[in-house]
Every structure is written in structure tokens, then in C-alpha cells.
Amino acid sequence: LRSLAYPEGKLRVINEKLAYQFRKIQLPPYVMSPRKGRGQRDNAAAHVNGEQFLQLDIRKFYPSIERERVARFFRDECGITVDVAGMLTGFLTVDDAIAFGAPATPVFALLVCRAMFDEIYELCRIHDLTMTLWVDDLTVSGEVIPGSVVAGIRAIVARHGFESHKVVRKTSSRPVDITGVLVDRAEVRPVNSVNLRVRDLERE
Description:
By secondary structure, the chain is of the alpha+beta class.
């Protein structure tokens, strides 16, 4: 279970306007969500023909983006004055953390943590690996994923003040589930549970 925070009334209007402005910022190529026109299938398709796969997600991603981290982002990275940075921080956080459930949160969380994800992407690029990001779920694929890359990714995550869940490593010997879509060598297809739901709907 996760605690959600939905802004209401004027606060929701402000949050939606901020989300609209944040979405104007160009996102790096590895971002699949939140991104208009990209879906789970695109995220999986980026890893077609991979031989080895690594999957990692960040523990308590949204709750770990605390109020001070948000304020620091506005002040230091955006160059916004302290008073305005404080006001914007108040619009986007609740109970000392980013508001999980608010319209602006998915894209704003990415912007706040972009330096970390960019660092991981550069590490993967140096080793000729493909990396995609679905919210806080990282997927890396390639011919060989060295142990040094795994250790490097975890070190980057820790240095930026986050914790990573256990790393899952897989190979192409079996279809790999990437955000609900199976990568089976050179093709992508829905996981079986999706096929069963479609079949049930057709029967109804």
C-alpha cells in the first residue's frame, strides 16, 4: 500500500499548470515514462536483441525526494530566488516530501533526479549498453553487463542519497518481462496475464 496525496481546488490548478510547464523541458532519450507518445511496449522494444539484462528500481523513490532536495533544485539548479523557490516547494510537497499522487510529480521527480539518471546513462553508454527508465525502474541490456557496471550504478544511486532494491539479472535464454511486456529475442509481446484478460473481455 502507498499513501497518495491529491491536491484539490486551487492547489490542483496550480499543480497542473506547473506540470504543463515542466513537460516543455526536453527529456533525455532514455526516458520512457513520463513521456508523451511512449508506452511500456516502447520501453521493452528498446531492449530487443539484448543478451543480458539488468533491472533495478529505487527504494521509496518519491518519499525519498524530500522538501529540502526540492528547494535546493529550484535554488541551485534553476537559479530561482529563495522566496520563490520556497513557494514552489510548498506547492509540490506534503509532509516533507514530494506529493505522490499530484499531477506534476512524475515529471518533476525526474527533473530533480536527472543528474543521477544522466550519470547512470553515461556509464551504460561507455560500456555500449542500452538503458531505459520507466519512472524509477531502470532496465539495462547489452551483449555483456560487467559486474563493474552493476557496482557503478549502485554507487551512483547511493551517492545521490537513494537506496536501490536488489538488482535482478536475466539472460535472453528465456523471455524477459520488462514493465509488463515480454522481450523474446527479436520480438516483444504481452505477458500471459494480459492475454488472459483480453480473452476474458472477448468472452464477455
